[in-house]
Every structure is written in C-alpha cells, then in structure tokens.
Design brief:
This protein has about 180 residues and is of the alpha+beta class. Helix content is about 25%, strand content about 25%. The protein is globular.
C-alpha cells in the first residue's frame, strides 16, 4: 500500500522558487539529504509509489504546495549518468531545490503544479494526523486553526490515510 508524506520547505526556498519562475511548474523531482534542512526521504521510509506533499509554514498558516508520486529514488552521485536526457533536464531545472548536502534524488511523473496559494483550512490543520511505528499524532502548536510553530513539520513525516486523502483533495484540481 502506498503512503503519503509531508516535507517542510523553508520560506527562503519558497521565495527563491517563486523568484526563479517555478510557480506553476509541475513537480517532477525532489532532493533529500542527511540534515534537518534537507531531510532524508529514504530514512523516513519513502518508496516508489508513495506521494510526497511539500508544505510551507507561513504566517500562522500551513500551505500545501503540491504533490508528487515517487517513481524512482537514486543516490545523488549516480543521478547524472543514470538519468535519461529528459530526467537530467529536470535535475538541472529544479536545482534550486538542492539546498545543502544532497544524497538522494526522487523522480516522478509530473505531479501537481507548484502553488504557494493553497492554505490548509484551520479545521483540517487541527486534525491533521501523522503516523509512525510509535502510533499516530496530531500537530502540536495549533491554536484556533492557526499554526503557532512549525517544529512538528520539520522533516519528512508519513500522513495517516485520512489526512493524506484530505491533502490530496486540496491539490487534486491542480492535477488536471
């Protein structure tokens, strides 16, 4: 069974993606690494067939930026020679996402267009649930439908099936 995950993108990265014209481009590649600023998707358990939702915490709101289904995961040092020409072009086009020490590359078919305007409604934010081997948890630092801190989002986290479906619905109209 495929899982869905979130990964938190910083405000600085989102501003750079907007500035460099990536808004509206379909997500086709993601990068992971060993540090908190660029967390490892492999360590989080992401596999081909899973979906990744980049999110942004901005001004007490959580924004879901898009969704991408993972088709392949490659070690970064092998990505260049291993990729077909069209995938290598994706690697170069999305190099803005390479912040810090990159160790893995996630490739997928074109996902949803990158958008900075989709806010997770407050009622969904309050019940957004993540799951792990230890059980399920909701986000801490949510008050009155507003996000007061983003600590619980820093990393790559697996969504509970119901929360995954709700985030998917938020970006579903962009998949068309």
């Amino acid at each position: 069974m495929a899982n869905s995950y979130t990964t938190l993108w910083t405000d600085a990265l989102c501003r750079e993606l907007k500035r460099s014209g990536h808004e509206g481009a379909r997500l086709t590649i993601l990068f992971g690494g060993p540090y908190g600023s660029l967390p490892s998707f492999l360590r989080a358990g992401v596999r081909p067939g899973d979906t990744v939702h980049p999110v942004r915490a901005h001004r007490t709101r959580l924004h879901v930026l898009g969704a991408m289904e993972v088709s392949r995961i490659l070690p970064y040092e092998e990505a260049g020679p291993e990729l077909a020409d069209e995938d290598y072009a994706k690697l170069m086009d999305w190099r803005t996402l390479k912040t810090g020490a990159v160790t893995e590359v996630l490739l997928g078919p074109p996902g949803s267009p990158l958008s900075f305007d989709t806010v997770v409604p407050g009622d969904l934010l309050e019940r957004l649930t993540f799951t792990s081997r230890r059980g399920e948890r909701t986000l801490k630092h949510v008050e009155d439908g507003r996000l007061t801190r983003s600590n619980g989002l820093q990393g790559v986290y697996r969504l509970a099936p119901g929360s995954a479906a709700e985030l998917r619905r938020l970006v579903a109209d962009r998949f068309r």
